[in-house]
Amino acid sequence: xxxxxxxxxxxxxxxxxxxxxxxxxxxxxxxxxxxxxxxxxxxxxxxxxxxxxxxxxxxxxxxxxxxxxxxxxxxxxxxxxxxxxxxxxxxxxxxxxxxxxxxxxxxxxxxxx
Amino acid sequence: xxxxxxxxxxxxxxxxxxxxxxxxxxxxxxxxxxxxxxxxxxxxxxxxxxxxxxxxxxxxxxxxxxxxxxxxxxxxxxxxxxxxxxxxxxxxxxxxxxxxxxxxxxxxxxxxxxx
Lengths: 113, 115
Prior knowledge:
The structure holds 2 protein chains of 2 kinds. Chain A contains no helices and 11 strands.
């Protein structure tokens, strides 16, 4: 059974630091992987989607990488800002079926001014 | 551009009461989903609709029913609410389900408490 793990559950860093969030999955046969941001009391906002054939995706200060063989994805945030404070979740899609999306529990990120 | 709209935002029910959560999307997406989010458990799929006219069970469908009213709207019904259904419910949509490489778009959630 596919499991998606995000460690640590919470992270606090000072403003301006570069940081890496981790996502691990147990079955390397994934279709794609998506990173989301969730602000308190809000829904999830898609940040980056990496297809299984890709190694990384970039959007502004965000870079997501995918290593299927090791079952890992990382979300790199450059020059962190207080506005980056949120919970970051990853989700893996196991196949083309709409039902096969497994979410991690998220990392709650706090950027200290 | 409203995206995915959920109503109501908050609801308190007593055990045994029924209610319907509404969801509408204005992005002409084919697929729609209902998830619940509980502390420390990630999001779990309740039901989904890959396309208009179809619905299928997800991971935790017991105690729920759904209706894909048209391409825009997908409702979730609790027939007899139980305290275990206290959760935050999210509706989501995506352009394509069958091909799979389209991002999910989420509403802002409905916070449901069952006493």
